[in-house]
Amino acid sequence: LIFETLFSEEIFSPCDRPCKRAHWPRICRYRLVIEKRLMPKSLLAVDHKNIIRTTDQAAATTTGGHLAWQQQRHYFLVNGRHTGPALTVCERDFIVIDIVNRIPGQSIAIHWTGQSQRRTPFMDGVPMITQCPIASYTTFQYKFQADQVGTHLYHGFSAEERGLGLVGAFVVRSEHEQRIHPVTSGCHRQELVWIIAETDSGALSINGRRSFVQQVKPGLRYRLRVAFVSPFETLPEGCQYWLEVDQHRLTVI
Hints:
- By secondary structure, the chain is mainly β.
- The chain has a domain at 11-176: Sandwich (Immunoglobulin-like).
- It is built from four helices and eleven strands, in the order E-H-H-E-E-E-E-E-E-H-E-H-E-E-E.
- The protein starts with 26 loop residues before the first strand and ends in a 24-residue tail after the last strand.
């Protein structure tokens, strides 16, 4: 017998698939490396690949290689990205995620929104109460079953962590989606995930980029999953957001 073990980077997407009730649930393995780097705020507006460069690389692109302290900020990176990668699974899948904390002198904990954690209450909740925080330069493995369908988030517990990039989309697809929402079935099925984040300065970004471009093909119908993240515990009174796509009609499903 030959056994083959795949690293998490190699099996990062097989769980992103059409969900069918007749299929067995899968074990979905991921590895997320959390870092924190000091970098200029302007990078969020110019990095079209959503990859944050190191401070040395960023300094080399500025005039004279000098950056004012007011123009720099510590940002959280998830697998090298400001706003982590989207994790897409099917209902009833078993999730196994290694969280690697590479932040010096700071512990973290991840919250998985929307999931009941009925059999695994110690895999979520307030750090030091229902779950142990992940100490600096250690790895913790989360294990739970995705039992609530919809567009959810994984993020750090503090509002600052959410606002500075420690956040990503966690999508749980339903086995009934193709029957209920025909827009997501067949050859025209295209799905996009947008995380709209508000910074502490009030600016908005989509998927970690303030200047965001979404490439689409004419004639296709797209399903757009949208989640909003704010560094504030509560939005200012009367503050609401409206999302529209110019010259296109949106249908809420």
